[in-house]
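Protocol step 4 of 6.
Sequence for Ubiquinone biosynthesis O-methyltransferase, mitochondrial (Raphanus sativus) entered exactly as in the expression construct, tag removed. Do not edit the line below.
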Amino acid sequence: MMNQMQRILAARRLSPSIIPPSCFLHRRWFSTSETDASSRHQKIETLEDKASSNKSRITPSTTSSLNEQELAKFSAIADTWWHSEGPFKPLHLMNPTRLAFIRSTLCRHFSKDPSSARPFEGLRLIDVGCGGGLLSEPLARMGATVTGIDAVDKNIKIARLHADMDPMTSTIEYQCTTAEKLVEEGRTFDAVLALEVIEHVANPAEFCKSLSALTIPNGATILSTINRSMRSYASAIVAAEYILQWLPKGTHEWSSFLTPEELTMILQRTSVDVKEMAGFVYNPITGRWLLSDDTSVNFIAYGTRKNDIGGDI
Ligand SMILES: C[S@@+](CC[C@H](N)C(=O)[O-])C[C@H]1O[C@@H](n2cnc3c(N)ncnc32)[C@H](O)[C@@H]1O
Ligand SMILES: [Mg+2]
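Step 5 output, C-alpha coordinates:
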Protein backbone atom coordinates (compact mmCIF):
# COMPACT_ATOMS: atom_id res chain seq x y z
CA MET A 1 0.00 0.00 0.00
CA MET A 2 1.25 3.51 -0.79
CA ASN A 3 2.21 5.58 2.21
CA GLN A 4 1.27 9.27 2.43
CA MET A 5 4.63 10.45 1.08
CA GLN A 6 4.43 8.17 -1.95
CA ARG A 7 0.89 9.34 -2.67
CA ILE A 8 1.95 13.00 -2.57
CA LEU A 9 4.92 12.40 -4.77
CA ALA A 10 2.93 10.38 -7.27
CA ALA A 11 0.28 13.10 -7.33
CA ARG A 12 2.84 15.77 -8.05
CA ARG A 13 4.67 13.95 -10.86
CA LEU A 14 4.78 16.55 -13.56
CA SER A 15 3.73 16.34 -17.14
CA PRO A 16 4.87 18.74 -19.87
CA SER A 17 1.25 19.99 -20.05
CA ILE A 18 1.82 22.22 -17.01
CA ILE A 19 4.44 24.27 -18.82
CA PRO A 20 2.86 27.71 -19.32
CA PRO A 21 3.02 29.69 -22.58
CA SER A 22 5.67 32.38 -22.73
CA CYS A 23 3.07 35.13 -22.14
CA PHE A 24 3.01 34.05 -18.49
CA LEU A 25 6.73 34.39 -18.02
CA HIS A 26 7.70 36.48 -15.05
CA ARG A 27 9.88 39.50 -15.80
CA ARG A 28 12.50 38.47 -13.25
CA TRP A 29 13.57 35.48 -15.32
CA PHE A 30 15.35 37.99 -17.45
CA SER A 31 17.63 40.84 -16.61
CA THR A 32 15.57 43.58 -14.95
CA SER A 33 16.45 46.15 -17.60
CA GLU A 34 14.88 44.04 -20.32
CA THR A 35 11.19 44.37 -19.78
CA ASP A 36 9.84 44.91 -23.28
CA ALA A 37 8.11 41.98 -24.90
CA SER A 38 10.34 41.70 -27.96
CA SER A 39 13.63 41.60 -26.07
CA ARG A 40 12.08 39.05 -23.72
CA HIS A 41 11.07 36.93 -26.67
CA GLN A 42 14.56 37.18 -28.17
CA LYS A 43 16.09 36.15 -24.89
CA ILE A 44 13.84 33.07 -24.70
CA GLU A 45 14.87 32.10 -28.22
CA THR A 46 18.54 32.61 -27.44
CA LEU A 47 18.25 30.41 -24.39
CA GLU A 48 16.41 27.75 -26.38
CA ASP A 49 18.97 27.85 -29.20
CA LYS A 50 21.77 27.43 -26.72
CA ALA A 51 19.97 24.58 -24.99
CA SER A 52 19.39 22.63 -28.18
CA SER A 53 22.75 23.30 -29.86
CA ASN A 54 24.77 22.47 -26.78
CA LYS A 55 22.83 20.00 -24.68
CA SER A 56 25.85 18.18 -23.38
CA ARG A 57 27.88 21.12 -22.06
CA ILE A 58 26.15 24.03 -20.46
CA THR A 59 28.21 27.15 -21.03
CA PRO A 60 29.19 28.79 -17.75
CA SER A 61 27.02 31.70 -16.67
CA THR A 62 28.60 35.08 -17.33
CA THR A 63 26.15 36.83 -15.01
CA SER A 64 26.69 37.06 -11.28
CA SER A 65 23.95 35.60 -9.11
CA LEU A 66 24.82 38.05 -6.35
CA ASN A 67 22.19 40.51 -5.15
CA GLU A 68 24.11 42.67 -2.69
CA GLN A 69 20.97 43.97 -0.95
CA GLU A 70 19.80 40.43 -0.25
CA LEU A 71 23.23 39.33 0.95
CA ALA A 72 23.38 42.26 3.39
CA LYS A 73 20.16 40.98 5.02
CA PHE A 74 21.77 37.59 5.70
CA SER A 75 25.06 39.06 6.81
CA ALA A 76 23.22 41.17 9.42
CA ILE A 77 21.73 38.09 11.14
CA ALA A 78 24.53 35.58 10.50
CA ASP A 79 25.16 35.07 14.23
CA THR A 80 21.69 33.63 14.69
CA TRP A 81 21.79 30.66 12.30
CA TRP A 82 21.75 28.08 15.08
CA HIS A 83 19.30 29.88 17.41
CA SER A 84 16.28 27.67 17.03
CA GLU A 85 13.99 30.48 18.23
CA GLY A 86 15.70 33.21 16.14
CA PRO A 87 15.02 34.54 12.64
CA PHE A 88 15.82 31.16 11.10
CA LYS A 89 13.21 29.36 13.23
CA PRO A 90 11.07 28.55 10.15
CA LEU A 91 14.05 26.79 8.51
CA HIS A 92 14.80 24.84 11.72
CA LEU A 93 11.16 23.73 11.86
CA MET A 94 11.08 22.90 8.16
CA ASN A 95 14.28 20.84 8.24
CA PRO A 96 12.84 17.38 9.07
CA THR A 97 10.15 17.81 6.40
CA ARG A 98 12.47 18.90 3.61
CA LEU A 99 14.98 16.21 4.58
CA ALA A 100 12.23 13.60 4.23
CA PHE A 101 11.65 14.75 0.64
CA ILE A 102 15.40 14.83 -0.09
CA ARG A 103 15.97 11.38 1.41
CA SER A 104 13.08 9.90 -0.50
CA THR A 105 13.90 11.41 -3.92
CA LEU A 106 17.69 10.98 -3.76
CA CYS A 107 17.44 7.39 -2.51
CA ARG A 108 15.16 6.52 -5.40
CA HIS A 109 17.30 8.44 -7.87
CA PHE A 110 20.58 6.81 -6.82
CA SER A 111 19.07 3.42 -5.85
CA LYS A 112 20.03 3.81 -2.20
CA ASP A 113 18.29 2.23 0.79
CA PRO A 114 16.13 4.92 2.46
CA SER A 115 15.95 2.93 5.69
CA SER A 116 19.75 2.94 6.08
CA ALA A 117 21.25 5.27 8.71
CA ARG A 118 23.72 6.57 6.11
CA PRO A 119 21.83 6.31 2.81
CA PHE A 120 23.94 8.95 1.04
CA GLU A 121 27.25 7.13 1.52
CA GLY A 122 29.28 7.53 -1.69
CA LEU A 123 27.36 10.57 -2.97
CA ARG A 124 28.92 14.00 -3.51
CA LEU A 125 26.36 16.68 -2.70
CA ILE A 126 26.60 20.46 -2.84
CA ASP A 127 24.41 22.73 -0.72
CA VAL A 128 24.34 26.06 -2.60
CA GLY A 129 23.48 29.03 -0.36
CA CYS A 130 24.09 26.84 2.68
CA GLY A 131 23.83 29.67 5.23
CA GLY A 132 24.92 28.36 8.63
CA GLY A 133 24.77 24.74 7.45
CA LEU A 134 21.29 23.74 8.68
CA LEU A 135 20.95 21.38 5.73
CA SER A 136 24.62 20.54 5.06
CA GLU A 137 25.02 18.98 8.52
CA PRO A 138 22.21 16.41 8.36
CA LEU A 139 23.25 15.54 4.80
CA ALA A 140 26.76 14.79 6.07
CA ARG A 141 25.30 12.70 8.90
CA MET A 142 23.42 10.72 6.28
CA GLY A 143 26.80 9.76 4.83
CA ALA A 144 27.18 12.23 1.95
CA THR A 145 30.40 13.98 1.06
CA VAL A 146 29.12 17.53 1.41
CA THR A 147 30.31 20.84 0.00
CA GLY A 148 28.48 23.88 1.37
CA ILE A 149 28.86 27.24 -0.35
CA ASP A 150 27.49 30.65 0.47
CA ALA A 151 28.14 34.15 -0.83
CA VAL A 152 28.27 35.59 2.70
CA ASP A 153 31.60 35.02 4.39
CA LYS A 154 30.11 35.38 7.91
CA ASN A 155 27.68 32.52 7.15
CA ILE A 156 30.53 30.26 6.10
CA LYS A 157 32.52 31.08 9.26
CA ILE A 158 29.52 30.24 11.46
CA ALA A 159 28.83 27.07 9.46
CA ARG A 160 32.44 25.91 9.80
CA LEU A 161 32.58 26.63 13.54
CA HIS A 162 29.35 24.72 14.13
CA ALA A 163 30.28 21.76 11.94
CA ASP A 164 33.67 21.43 13.64
CA MET A 165 31.92 20.59 16.91
CA ASP A 166 31.02 17.12 15.61
CA PRO A 167 33.39 14.69 13.82
CA MET A 168 30.47 13.55 11.61
CA THR A 169 30.07 17.07 10.20
CA SER A 170 33.64 18.39 10.45
CA THR A 171 34.32 16.77 7.07
CA ILE A 172 32.03 19.27 5.28
CA GLU A 173 33.93 21.43 2.80
CA TYR A 174 32.66 24.99 3.32
CA GLN A 175 33.59 27.76 0.91
CA CYS A 176 32.55 31.36 0.51
CA THR A 177 31.86 31.36 -3.22
CA THR A 178 29.10 31.18 -5.81
CA ALA A 179 27.71 28.43 -8.01
CA GLU A 180 28.94 30.23 -11.14
CA LYS A 181 32.50 30.39 -9.81
CA LEU A 182 32.51 26.65 -9.10
CA VAL A 183 31.25 26.05 -12.65
CA GLU A 184 34.24 28.01 -13.94
CA GLU A 185 36.47 25.78 -11.83
CA GLY A 186 34.90 22.72 -13.46
CA ARG A 187 33.46 21.26 -10.25
CA THR A 188 30.58 18.77 -10.52
CA PHE A 189 28.44 16.88 -8.00
CA ASP A 190 26.07 13.91 -7.98
CA ALA A 191 23.33 16.12 -6.60
CA VAL A 192 22.97 19.88 -6.29
CA LEU A 193 20.67 21.40 -3.68
CA ALA A 194 19.64 25.04 -3.33
CA LEU A 195 16.98 25.43 -0.67
CA GLU A 196 15.32 28.80 -0.09
CA VAL A 197 17.98 30.56 -2.15
CA ILE A 198 16.59 31.27 -5.63
CA GLU A 199 14.25 34.00 -4.35
CA HIS A 200 17.33 35.89 -3.12
CA VAL A 201 19.56 35.73 -6.23
CA ALA A 202 20.05 38.38 -8.91
CA ASN A 203 19.10 36.31 -11.93
CA PRO A 204 17.18 33.06 -11.33
CA ALA A 205 17.56 31.73 -14.88
CA GLU A 206 21.34 32.16 -14.86
CA PHE A 207 21.48 30.75 -11.33
CA CYS A 208 19.65 27.61 -12.49
CA LYS A 209 22.02 27.34 -15.42
CA SER A 210 24.92 27.21 -12.96
CA LEU A 211 23.13 24.64 -10.77
CA SER A 212 22.58 22.47 -13.83
CA ALA A 213 26.21 22.80 -14.92
CA LEU A 214 27.32 21.72 -11.43
CA THR A 215 25.19 18.57 -11.66
CA ILE A 216 26.69 15.51 -13.34
CA PRO A 217 24.78 14.14 -16.33
CA ASN A 218 22.00 11.95 -14.89
CA GLY A 219 22.52 13.59 -11.51
CA ALA A 220 19.82 15.23 -9.40
CA THR A 221 18.92 18.85 -8.68
CA ILE A 222 16.68 19.93 -5.80
CA LEU A 223 15.39 23.44 -5.15
CA SER A 224 12.89 24.84 -2.71
CA THR A 225 11.36 28.29 -2.66
CA ILE A 226 8.14 30.28 -2.17
CA ASN A 227 5.35 30.49 -4.75
CA ARG A 228 4.28 33.89 -6.08
CA SER A 229 0.63 33.58 -5.08
CA MET A 230 -1.90 35.60 -3.09
CA ARG A 231 -1.62 33.03 -0.31
CA SER A 232 2.15 33.45 -0.12
CA TYR A 233 1.73 37.22 0.18
CA ALA A 234 -0.66 36.70 3.09
CA SER A 235 1.32 34.00 4.89
CA ALA A 236 5.01 34.27 3.93
CA ILE A 237 5.10 38.07 4.09
CA VAL A 238 2.19 39.58 6.06
CA ALA A 239 1.90 36.80 8.66
CA ALA A 240 5.54 35.62 8.92
CA GLU A 241 7.17 39.07 8.84
CA TYR A 242 4.56 41.47 10.27
CA ILE A 243 2.13 39.52 12.48
CA LEU A 244 4.11 36.57 13.88
CA GLN A 245 7.44 38.37 13.36
CA TRP A 246 9.18 35.09 12.66
CA LEU A 247 11.36 36.81 10.06
CA PRO A 248 12.79 40.33 9.99
CA LYS A 249 10.53 42.70 8.02
CA GLY A 250 11.65 42.92 4.40
CA THR A 251 13.21 39.44 4.35
CA HIS A 252 11.25 38.55 1.23
CA GLU A 253 10.23 40.45 -1.89
CA TRP A 254 6.96 38.97 -3.15
CA SER A 255 7.79 39.91 -6.75
CA SER A 256 10.97 37.81 -6.56
CA PHE A 257 9.03 34.60 -5.99
CA LEU A 258 8.58 32.09 -8.81
CA THR A 259 5.57 29.89 -9.40
CA PRO A 260 6.13 26.10 -9.64
CA GLU A 261 5.41 26.30 -13.37
CA GLU A 262 7.97 29.06 -13.89
CA LEU A 263 10.63 27.18 -11.95
CA THR A 264 9.87 24.02 -13.92
CA MET A 265 10.26 25.89 -17.19
CA ILE A 266 13.50 27.62 -16.19
CA LEU A 267 14.97 24.29 -15.13
CA GLN A 268 13.82 22.57 -18.29
CA ARG A 269 15.69 25.19 -20.30
CA THR A 270 18.87 24.27 -18.46
CA SER A 271 18.49 20.52 -19.18
CA VAL A 272 16.94 19.68 -15.81
CA ASP A 273 13.62 17.82 -16.02
CA VAL A 274 11.49 18.39 -12.94
CA LYS A 275 10.13 14.98 -11.94
CA GLU A 276 8.47 15.62 -8.61
CA MET A 277 7.24 18.50 -6.57
CA ALA A 278 5.72 18.82 -3.11
CA GLY A 279 4.38 21.61 -0.98
CA PHE A 280 5.25 22.33 2.65
CA VAL A 281 2.27 23.22 4.79
CA TYR A 282 2.56 24.59 8.32
CA ASN A 283 0.26 23.24 11.00
CA PRO A 284 -0.05 26.02 13.62
CA ILE A 285 -1.47 23.59 16.20
CA THR A 286 1.42 21.11 16.15
CA GLY A 287 3.99 23.69 15.06
CA ARG A 288 5.17 21.25 12.39
CA TRP A 289 5.56 21.42 8.64
CA LEU A 290 4.07 18.63 6.55
CA LEU A 291 4.65 17.52 2.98
CA SER A 292 1.55 18.17 0.96
CA ASP A 293 0.31 18.46 -2.59
CA ASP A 294 -0.52 22.10 -1.81
CA THR A 295 2.29 24.09 -3.48
CA SER A 296 0.53 27.45 -3.14
CA VAL A 297 3.09 28.82 -0.65
CA ASN A 298 6.25 26.81 0.08
CA PHE A 299 7.34 24.12 -2.36
CA ILE A 300 10.26 21.87 -3.23
CA ALA A 301 11.17 20.42 -6.63
CA TYR A 302 13.38 17.50 -7.62
CA GLY A 303 14.70 17.19 -11.16
CA THR A 304 17.12 15.06 -13.10
CA ARG A 305 19.93 16.48 -15.20
CA LYS A 306 19.72 15.16 -18.75
CA ASN A 307 22.72 13.14 -19.83
CA ASP A 308 25.27 14.18 -22.43
CA ILE A 309 23.51 12.55 -25.34
CA GLY A 310 20.27 14.28 -24.54
CA GLY A 311 18.56 11.29 -22.93
CA ASP A 312 17.30 10.75 -19.44
CA ILE A 313 17.92 8.03 -16.90
C1 LIG B 1 17.17 31.71 3.25
S1 LIG B 1 18.85 31.32 3.34
C2 LIG B 1 18.80 29.55 3.09
C3 LIG B 1 19.91 28.82 3.77
C4 LIG B 1 19.94 27.32 3.57
N1 LIG B 1 19.89 26.96 2.17
C5 LIG B 1 18.79 26.68 4.29
O1 LIG B 1 17.76 26.45 3.67
O2 LIG B 1 18.94 26.40 5.49
C6 LIG B 1 19.53 31.88 1.78
C7 LIG B 1 21.03 31.80 1.74
O3 LIG B 1 21.47 31.98 0.40
C8 LIG B 1 22.65 32.77 0.41
N2 LIG B 1 22.77 33.38 -0.92
C9 LIG B 1 21.99 34.33 -1.46
N3 LIG B 1 22.37 34.59 -2.72
C10 LIG B 1 23.40 33.75 -3.00
C11 LIG B 1 24.18 33.51 -4.15
N4 LIG B 1 23.98 34.21 -5.26
N5 LIG B 1 25.14 32.57 -4.10
C12 LIG B 1 25.34 31.86 -2.95
N6 LIG B 1 24.64 32.05 -1.82
C13 LIG B 1 23.66 32.97 -1.85
C14 LIG B 1 22.43 33.73 1.55
O4 LIG B 1 23.64 34.28 2.02
C15 LIG B 1 21.74 32.85 2.57
O5 LIG B 1 22.66 32.22 3.41
MG1 LIG C 1 13.83 32.98 1.53
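Step 6, annotate. Residues 89-109 form the longest helix (21 residues).
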